Amino acid sequence: QVQLVESGGGLVQAGGSLRLSCAASGRTFSDDIMGWFRQGPGKEREFVSAINWSGDRTHYANSVKGRFTISRDNAKNTVFLQMNSLKPEDTAVYYCAAQIPEYHYSDYDRYHYWGQGTQVTVST
């Protein structure tokens, strides 16, 4: 059974940091594109960041560029999202996703596997 399990969410003050993790199991993800998406209250799901299989190509939404960093550890089947300088508008449920490479990094409908999400709340 393929599973993506996110962790690391929580409540943090504006300006603070959180590190999200996504542990993958059930198949080999080392060749997959891994992505993070988020869905805020009353909003549509939006792209946050993605990373290719080797980790040498990363993509970020403009809203998080310079504040968030995506990385992966293929030996542990885990992908991370380091979030710094958090803002209240970053409040959302954050989802991890895996794409058998189609190289559509920011298109959520191109991802094949999804986690259940982890809540991130940034207070003022």
Task: Describe the protein's architecture and organization.
The protein has 124 residues and is mostly beta strands. Helix content is 0%, strand content 49%. The chain contains no helices and eleven strands. The strands form two sheets. Strands 2, 4, 5, 6, 9, 10 and 11 form a seven-stranded mixed sheet that branches. A four-stranded antiparallel sheet has the order 1-3-8-7, with no helix packed on it. It is globular and about 40 Å long. The chain starts with a strand and ends with a strand.
Question: Which descriptors apply to this entry?
Answer:
globular; 124 residues; 0% helix
Rg value: 13 Å
Q: Approximately how much beta-strand content do the residues carry?
A: over 45%
Order of helices and strands: EEEEEEEEEEE
Cα(first) to Cα(last) distance is 40 Å
Overall average residue pLDDT = 96
The gross shape turns out to be globular
Largest sheet: 7 strands, mixed
Overall helicity: under 10%
The poorly predicted ranges are none
